[in-house]
Amino acid sequence: MSFLARHRIILPVVSLAVLLAATFYMQPRAMSYFGLNLLFNLAVPIALATIAQMLIIMVNDIDLSLGAFVSLAACVTATSLNDAPLLGALILLGLILSYALLGAVIHMLELPAIVVTLGMSFVWGGIALFILPAPGGVSPDWLRTLMTVKPPIAPMAVVAAVIIAAVTHLLIMRSGIGTVLRGVGGNARSVARAGWSLVRLKALAYGLAGLFGVLAGMALVGLTTSADANIALRYTLLSIAGVILGGGEFIGGRVSPTGAVIGALTLTLAASFLSFMRLSPDWQIGAQGAILILVLTARLIFSRKGAEE
Amino acid sequence: MKLFSKPWLWSWLAAAAAFAVTAALTSGRGGGELAYAALSFGAFAAIVGLGQMLVITLGPGNVDLSIPATMTLAATLALKAMGSQPGTAFLGLGIALAVGLGAGLANYALIYLLRLPPIIATLAASLVYQSVAIWSNRGLRIKPPTGLADFATGRFLGLPNVAWVGLALAIVVWVILERSVWGRWLLATGQNLRVARLAGIPVELVRAATYISVALFSALAGYLLASFSGGAALNMGQEYLLMSIAVVVIGGSSIAGGDSNVPGVWGAALFMFLVVSMLNSYGAVAGLRNVLTGTIIIAIVIAASTRRNRA
Prior knowledge:
Chain B: It is a multi-pass membrane protein. The complex is a heterodimer. Chain A is mainly alpha-helical. Chain A has one domain (7-20, 39-302). Helix content of chain A is 73%, strand content 0%. The longest helix of chain A is centred in the last third of the chain and has 27 residues, at 198-224. The relative contact order of chain A is 0.21. Chain B has a two-stranded antiparallel sheet with strand order 1-2. Chain B has one domain. At the A-B interface, helix 8, helix 14 and helix 16 of A face helix 5, helix 11 and helix 13 of B.
């Protein structure tokens, strides 16, 4: 195994650094507290959603409903949580529990996660439309304050990203239960033979994903101050891309929380970078795709020569 | 083989039930119109569904997320080239298929040369296609030539022309899958890539042909849909991403690959249209309609999987 293959985290770190350097070169004024804050403004909800997706990918599933779920959480936050905090909190808790239940059902009935989450994306989207038929709602004041706080030295988004990465790293990479959860993706049968209940583990992984999905929705509302039923639909694809950019694999429980957060930061930065390049708006989406391809091409270095898929 | 063990049966039963429930509301009147509409709109879902089915058959991790972007790009460029001039229908078709061929080749190049997971490769590529579509037309709506529009909305022997196209494609796909060496190669590749390769099957050629086919199908669907609905729109493909995956799975194909089901795709495509019109005719609001659609999809998947486990 080469040095790079063992330290998969190098790729996301280098991609982020290169993109950041390019941004600073294009726009030196971005190299400030205020500039960084603008660049990474929307990174926090994307990072949280990416962690949620990573938790699902960790157990060899994929979540196509995450964008709709984050939108729903945002709608609840902007309505119930603001008007009746207790009821709102209960609804959000219910959402997390239903995610855990979903994980258990998917495992018990041996359903393909990709299809069930596809169906759930209609359900979450429908409920969100029910709660908020037209864009609106108000962010709770405390959430607004939390998301716009100006900590010393580094801007809020950067501090939050470091905290998210540290907490999830401890949880997934360092703790006992995190190791077992990764084991479900690596070799579910051996985890079951070792006496663990796979149903409970899957429910836990999905429940944690639900928790991070809800947090993503709350963070998003704190930043945008209002919500609508489609506010975060693009998070489904963004979060999958973020996990892979961060060095994760679709199967085998090989994920990296730190990498996922860095992947989310890279995706956010790519959007800001393109607006600095004064690229015609027609090409912004395409250029984002091109950057994605470019960064992933670097993965080639990491796969051993002639390795079988 | 018993009738009940046919995996495509469930999607057809579900479609029939949705049809009956909707028709019951109008006490039988309008049943013909409903069936006609279902065949017209179902045809587009069936065409992209057939393409997605071939890709999903390739095995776990294979899915084409660029279908909507390919549809939009092919339709936009084709309609721009035709410029509403009469007699240009085949020129437009040629351009749409050329776009499909290009998109398929590009998708596969990313997957093979860069070893990207297909989900990510097609996702990233679709962003580029979308940009090209925006740049080439800025969302201006160009009308299709009259003759082409008449064809797309017309009927033959009582059935919509687009349904005939979808039906013909389904038969071609079925024959190729069930009766040709290519089909066997595709199924074998989906069941076990490594074994297929060791058995001497040119797996990379099979994968390339599959990714090109799905892009061609998407391009054709986009071309027909734009002609059907009076012009290309930038968001015209949007609903077909989830739709294409849903019809494959409801249709009884295995999401794990290696086991595909052509008749089921058509049944599921009809069902997906009928269930929405059923909920519409009972006056369900958009939110409730989505919740019920999602619940029904999951219920069918659960029904299909318990049947499979017992078998």
